[in-house]
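Entry 0007
Protein: CobN/magnesium chelatase domain-containing protein
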Amino acid sequence: MALLDGKPIVDVLINTQITLSPEARRQEFEALGIPVIQAMAYRRGDAAEWAADPQGVQLMDVPFYLAQAEYTGITDIQIAAATRKGDDQ
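Output (structure tokens):
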């Protein structure tokens, strides 16, 4: 854990990457001693389109962004961004 004067300087880690090698990541995250949140982007439209989407997360995203993260012990997976049409990012 990152400490400054013996006190933690990080309250939570926000992971935005696909989580591969779940057992190794689980050990790393546990060693940090802080909560880890998985953030993912809705890539099929903007925030309004995400809010109107009855599914919310596409089935093809589940193995990469949801299941792998859950295998590492991350359980609070959040949509943190959306992509506007015409945006390169």
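Curator remark: The CA atoms of residues 17 and 69 lie 9 Å apart. Helices lie at 22-32, 47-52, 62-71.
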